[in-house]
């Protein structure tokens, strides 16, 4: 996943890798940038879940690597092989927000949701909820327009899969939406990005009191079966709250 601008500002030491004091399930997130993955080795390395990129932007609107926009060509293979290896899977969409006002922002969100829905196709009851990766650039939209874009995408995807999507973001990114707790209170779990710290900085007043459900704690992981670095994640508690068809996340 593309780095959140301020998430890597600290040193490379990773206190988050220490044994956690609460139940946390280890996982990863990947995209076409990891290319071919040996999921049997990933499972053997103890990774129990993976968020797999299904799409980025819509066509050529990606400000970073525009030639790698649209559906992720590795998604179908990653989805099937990860599940065969016993790794729980959830799809995510890397948003590239666009529009020049309310009407065009809403239209852009619908188009990106359509690309994601078509790439994913269908989800099963054991899969993790779909996720929206929301981070800069934000296309010059103001906070109200960003909230409208986000609301539109989430509603389209929820209708398609029958599950409230997870939101991936960080404290600095969420500041562009004025730290709203609207989406937390609507039942969207938080996947927070904050690297190399003992505990993550959680936006929107501790996500409306619910706290984080997934924490991306490093972008420099080394996992058997994957060439190069990969993002590392903790899932807090159990799979229930972030599985397809589950209810709102439990409060702290």
Protein traits:
single chain, 252 residues, alpha/beta, TIM Barrel, eight-stranded mixed β-barrel, 27% helix, 20% strand, globular
Topology:
Layout: E1 24-30, H1 39-44, E2 49-56, E3 70-71, H2 75-84, E4 88-94, H3 102-120, E5 131-133, H4 143-161, E6 166-169, H5 171-174, H6 182-185, E7 190-193, H7 203-208, E8 214-221, E9 230-236
Parallel strand pairs: 1-2, 2-4, 4-5, 5-6, 6-7, 7-8
Antiparallel strand pairs: 1-9, 2-3, 8-9
How would you explain this protein's 3D organization?
The structure is a single chain. By secondary structure, the chain is of the alpha/beta class. It has one domain (25-242): TIM Barrel, CATH 3.20.20. Helix content is 27%, strand content 20%. It contains seven helices and nine strands. It starts with 23 loop residues before the first strand and ends in a 16-residue tail after the last strand.
**Uncertain ranges:** 2-21
SS-derived structural category: alpha/beta
- Domains (count): 1
How many strands, which pairing sense, and closed or not: the largest β-sheet? 8 strands, mixed, barrel
- Please give the alpha-carbon distance between the first and last residues: 27 Å
The percent range for strand residues is 15-25%
pLDDT averaged residue by residue: 89
- The rough form would be described as globular
Q: What is the third-level CATH name, the topology?
A: TIM Barrel
Strand order of the largest sheet: 1-2-4-5-6-7-8-9
Question: Could you say what the CATH architecture is?
Answer: Alpha-Beta Barrel
C-alpha Rg (nearest Å):
17 Å
The helix fraction, in percent, is: 25-40%
